[in-house]
Amino acid sequence: MASTEVHHVPRCTCEGRKSVEDDLAEDSTRTCQARTEDASGLETTTTTTAVSRNYRPRGSLARVLFDKQKADERLEAYDKRQWYTVDTSKIRDDLLKLWVPLGAGPYRDQPDKAAEIFLMRSSERSDSLPLQAWHSLARSALSWFISRTSINGLLGRGSMHVFSCEQFEKLMEASGFKGPWGSLVDLGAGDGATTTHVAHLFERVYATDISPPMRWALSKRKFTVLDVEKWHEEAGPFDVILCLNLLDRCDRPNTLLRQFRTSLTPGGRLVVALVLPFSPYVEVGERGDHKPSEYLPVKGNGLEGQIAGLVDRVFAPLGLKCLAWSKLPYLCEGDLGQAYYFLDDVLFVLEAVPDVAYNYEEKNETSEKVRSQEGPV
Ligand SMILES: C[S@@+](CC[C@H](N)C(=O)[O-])C[C@H]1O[C@@H](n2cnc3c(N)ncnc32)[C@H](O)[C@@H]1O
Question: According to the lineage, what is the superkingdom (predicted)?
Answer without folding.
Answer: Eukaryota
